[in-house]
Write a structure and sequence with these properties.
single chain; alpha+beta; Uridine Diphospho-n-acetylenolpyruvylglucosamine Reductase, domain 2; Uridine Diphospho-n-acetylenolpyruvylglucosamine Reductase, domain 3; Vanillyl-alcohol Oxidase, Chain A, domain 3; 4 domains; 5-stranded antiparallel sheet; globular
């Protein structure tokens, strides 16, 4: 590290002695995220506690030409919070963790970026309101990270993703000046849509200090079910059929047999491990009769296309067991082998059967163990490769599989990432999905907002 002691003292003046980390062990803790990429330790970690401190830290870092990476909980899966090489600074936002307002009259909340997603959802629920986005990491991820990556989750099919709830933002630009966009009103067309620009920006355009989020009334009734299939293709065809019949469940999840067996073994959840695949379906709404009608339509479609059986949850406890099983899929896969490569190639919902078939073909062709699960109702599948990165020959096959999965997704008119972001992991494939002109336009936009290219420089578009 070559950052001068004089500069470190300037950071200390802003944040206090315990919030500037220089020791090796401390810095290493912020060198990685959940992506399978090489860790890079920052030269310095700074943790401001107020918006005023945050703005001063951003300005000081930029004025001294130091690359910066903004980090909440570091749960993302694309390398978006891996620091830049050399004398780089990680700026933590998880001390800015206040829920500033929950407005029941106008249905919005104002929060700081370090608020934990699940805690926010629980707090809102106690007030009789509902915040639908529910990423798998909701128990630890922060809302600032959710906005930066446009996080989705199980309920995205019906309720949308983070961008659908973002009403306004305050963020700091490279000069440490506070920029405001959006409003507490339902309608707002004042100025440019900077919130739309900042959502999914992955820390490359500015640093959030305050977020305004829309809230909605909770559903009054719901019904959950598990459809069991002997044929994985029939399960995927059912997904397409449900959407084609204009039924919109709040969740429609796919889990294949590899995942079922691992969840059953590791999470101690009773599941039909003999099944080729299952669908987990939940419908909800304002009226019980309408919910029951949609549930019955779903059961009918599942049976018509080939479900061996459909099990309906009879009470809240049985429903909780269904979703506990789903939320334990990734942790169970991660225990199976030393390395877990989780992808989120996403396709139009009508192309889900083709994508499921192609992932099976790729696994067989490259002799890899790939578990498949995900938010099938919105086309967002998670092919998960279980491997050992230390086996160099095997990992070459893993990299080839990822390339081929992306190629298939794009061929099916899909996208490289539905919710995990681009980060470092997928930046090199951006041209493949868009074109060179799109990448150059994005770079020029970044240079106008960040002249020195110091905000998370190696992420998103490079």
């Amino acid at each position: 590290m070559t950052i001068s002691q004089a500069l470190i003292k300037e950071y200390l003046k802003i944040t206090g002695s315990s919030q500037v980390l220089t020791e090796d062990a401390d810095r290493l803790a912020y060198s990685y995220d959940a992506a399978v990429l090489t860790p890079i330790a920052p030269a310095l970690v700074v943790a401001p506690a107020t918006a005023e401190q945050l703005g001063r830290v951003v300005k000081l870092t930029y004025d001294n030409d130091l690359p910066m990476t903004i980090r909440g909980s570091g749960t993302n899966l694309s390398g978006a919070v891996i620091p830049e090489p050399g004398d780089s600074v990680v700026i933590l936002t998880n001390r800015l963790n206040k829920i500033l307002e929950i407005n029941q009259e106008d249905l919005y909340a104002v929060i700081e970026p370090g608020v934990i997603t699940g805690l926010f959802a629980e707090t809102v629920a106690k007030e009789g309101l509902f915040y639908p986005p529910d990423p798998g990491s909701l128990t630890v991820s922060t809302l600032g990270g959710n906005v930066a990556l446009n996080a989705g989750g199980l309920r995205g099919l019906k309720y949308g993703v983070t961008k659908d709830y973002l009403m306004g933002l305050e963020f700091f630009d490279y000069k440490g000046d506070l920029v405001k966009t959006g409003s507490r009103t339902v309608k707002c067309v004042t100025g440019y849509n900077l919130g739309g620009l900042m959502i999914s920006s992955e820390g490359t355009l500015g640093v959030f200090s305050k977020i305004i989020l829309k809230l909605i009334p909770p559903p009054k009734a719901s019904e959950a079910m598990m459809a069991i299939y002997d044929d994985v293709n029939k399960a995927s065809e059912t997904v397409a059929a449900i959407i084609a019949n204009h039924i919109l469940p709040c969740t429609l999840e796919f889990i294949d047999q590899k995942c079922l067996k691992l969840v059953s073994a590791h999470a101690n959840v009773a599941l039909p491990i003999e099944a080729a695949a299952i669908l987990l379906i939940e419908v909800d709404g304002a009226h019980k009769a309408g919910v029951e009608e949609d549930a019955n339509k779903n059961k009918e479609i599942c049976g018509k296309i080939g479900a061996k059986s459909v099990i309906v949850a009879q009470n809240p406890e049985e429903k909780d067991k269904i979703w506990t099983a789903r939320r334990n899929v990734l942790p169970s896969l991660a225990r199976a082998k030393p390395t877990t490569v989780l992808e989120d190639a996403t396709v139009p919902r009508s192309k889900i059967p083709a994508m499921v078939s192609e992932v099976s073909r790729i696994a067989a062709k490259l002799n890899l163990e790939i578990g498949l699960f995900g938010h099938a109702g919105d086309g967002n599948l998670h092919p998960t490769i279980m491997c050992d990165r230390r086996n160099l020959e095997e990992f070459k096959r893993v990299e080839a599989a990822v390339d081929e999965i992306f190629d298939v997704a794009i061929k099916l008119q899909g996208t490289l990432s539905g919710e995990h972001g681009v980060g470092q992991a997928k930046a090199k494939w951006m041209v493949k999905e868009t074109n060179q002109a799109t990448v150059e336009f994005s770079k020029n936009l970044r240079r106008a907002i960040d002249p020195k290219y110091l905000f998370n420089a190696s992420k998103k578009v490079i």
